[in-house]
Amino acid sequence: MRSMQASEDRIEAEIALLKPDDHFEVLPENMAAIEWFISTDDLYIWNGPVCVGLDVKAVRDDAILSGRKTTPDDYNKLRLLGQVYADELTKKMLRAKHD
Known about the structure:
Elements (H helix, E strand, L loop, with lengths): L7 H10 L13 H8 L5 E4 L2 E5 L1 H11 L5 H27 L1
Antiparallel strand pairs: 1-2
Helix pairs in contact: 2-4
């Protein structure tokens, strides 16, 4: 959020919404994609307040340079996670802009 110039107050408000007891299960067949997704937080393309999505060339280069072992299935899962994440970030940014 800081990279998107969110105020510290806004960041603290978002953190306050998180509950430390929020748990979710990740199926073993999805773990590699989830771990890959978590590492892509700085690989998104922005157009103003709109998150366009993952920079797939940067994702590819990062995977190659970091030696990440990937499969086409993991990549497809990453793309889906990335698009949902980008859509949600955009919704949050647009809501915040109108608040």
